[in-house]
Write a structure and sequence with these properties.
- The chain is an alpha+beta fold.
- The protein has helices at residues 2-5, 10-22, 28-46, 108-111, 114-119, 131-144, 156-159, 162-170, 221-227, 294-301, 305-316, 328-351; strands spanning 51-60, 70-74, 79-93, 96-104, 151-154, 175-179, 184-186, 219-220, 234-240, 245-257, 267-272, 282-286.
- Strands 1, 2, 3, 4, 5, 6, 7, 8, 9, 10, 11 and 12 form a twelve-stranded mixed beta sheet that branches.
- The N and C termini lie far apart (66 Å).
- Mean pLDDT is 85; it is low at 380-393.
Length: 409
């Protein structure tokens, strides 16, 4: 990259690029906003329906000095280990996606250690935020930019947080959020205790808190699924996969979330239970309209595969997990540049045009790789288009090799 930008001064340009990532005071929000401004309208031309996908991404990391590193769950490793975790919000539809925001999750042990934060150059105004709080702030920023609204999707780490779900409802955003099997809901005979007539205040606001007793308790979604009759289950296909059509067995019912004692509106509970499994594998709560079709509900629930592709390509193709610095600004600058590159590739993919390949510039004769010894020989100019002749130039023709004859016994 340095050779392409300034081939006659590669070393200084290389150092400037490191400064651009680790130290330079440019705005990550401004760059990500420009990426969204260019990519989102192109995606909208393909399809109007869209999703806002909340997710967190783990980066395995050794040591304890890199900003935000701690023992926490890392999705890439599938276990708790030393890593950094970032919360992201992506805009997506079936034709592509682009991250709108990307923010490092700073564990509480970090946020309380100001000396450690200072060494990693964490801004003083950064305080501890849960992942759900970070996601809500990212959603508020997206709403302020008046981006096309979509159905909010997230895994159970966010869906289990009643405050997160209530916040989306207050912002008039529909959601399809995964929840765990222990989630309680009001359904069927499992309803709150009735409120006596004389318990209601004569004046003022009506009672909004639900009452529970030994005979009036919510039901867990796992137990609910086991009580559903066979006719409730349907096999639904949601999209074409790489090797085969993706389908599974689902059921849906109308329920009210039972988090705390707050009265909530009715919403969808979607359950996936594959025939080969002993119990359901996934559950979702959704505020999609009651008139929404079964297939539409499933298609939205399964929309999170787009963010999985995002993470895979950003990490494997664009080096999202390859940042080797330790400070706060460098971590976010590196991620922003990776996302900008991803946005460029998304635009190229959407254009469908075959672009000419870039010409790789030759390195200057005096260039030595970064970190090489002082007595190392300089690197000669290499022309990647120059290839060796398949035969010595002084031999215009090569004699045919005679076939060895089989020796007679």
């Amino acid at each position: 990259m340095a050779a392409r930008v300034q081939s006659d001064n590669v070393r200084a340009t290389h150092q400037s690029m490191h400064h651009l990532v680790s130290t330079s005071e440019w705005s990550d929000e401004a760059v990500l906003g420009e990426v969204a401004t260019q990519v989102v309208p192109r995606l909208m031309k393909k399809e109007k329906r869209c999703w806002w996908i909340v997710d967190d991404t783990g980066h395995a990391k050794k040591g304890r000095h890199s900003v935000g590193v701690a023992r926490q769950y890392c999705g890439r490793l599938g276990k708790t280990d030393n890593c950094q975790v970032a919360v992201s919000l992506s805009w997506a539809n079936e034709h592509g996606s682009v991250p709108l925001a990307y923010r490092l999750y700073l564990p509480e042990e970090w946020a309380q250690d100001r000396e450690r934060c200072s060494a990693a150059r964490v801004p003083e105004q950064i305080e501890f935020r849960t992942k759900g709080q970070i996601a809500r702030e990212q959603i508020d920023a997206a709403l302020a930019k008046d981006l096309p609204r979509g159905v909010v999707l997230a895994d159970a780490a966010y869906g289990d947080e009643s405050g997160f779900r209530d916040g989306l409802t207050e912002r008039e955003l529909s959601y399809v959020l995964a929840v765990r099997e222990t989630t309680g809901v009001w359904w069927g005979e499992h309803q709150p205790a009735p409120v006596p007539a004389n318990d209601s205040p004569a004046r003022g606001r009506p009672r909004t808190r639900l009452k529970r007793d030994a005979a009036h308790q919510p039901i867990g979604v796992l137990e609910l699924a086991r009580q559903l009759p066979a006719k409730s289950w349907r096999t639904i296909t949601w999209r074409e996969g790489t090797n085969q059509t993706l389908c599974s067995r689902f059921a849906r019912v109308r329920v009210r979330a039972a988090s705390g004692n707050r009265a909530r509106k009715e919403e969808w509970l979607l359950i996936e239970w594959q025939v080969t499994e002993d119990k359901p594998v996934h559950y979702w709560l959704s505020t999609l309209p009651e008139r929404a079709s079964f297939k539409e509900l499933v298609a939205n629930a399964k929309g999170r595969w787009m963010i999985e592709r995002d993470c895979q390509e950003l990490k494997s193709e664009l080096g999202l997990s390859h940042y080797e610095g330790r400070n706060w600004r460098g971590f976010h600058h590196h991620a922003t540049l990776c996302i900008a590159a991803y946005g460029f590739l998304m635009l190229e993919r959407l254009s469908g045009k075959k672009n000419a390949r870039f010409e790789e510039p030759a390195l200057p004769e005096s260039y030595r790789p970064r970190g090489s010894r002082s007595d190392a020989t300089s690197r000669a100019v290499v022309d990647r288009k120059s290839t060796r002749s398949p035969r010595p130039r002084h031999r215009s023709r090569v004699a045919r090799v005679s076939m060895l004859r089989r020796r007679a016994d």
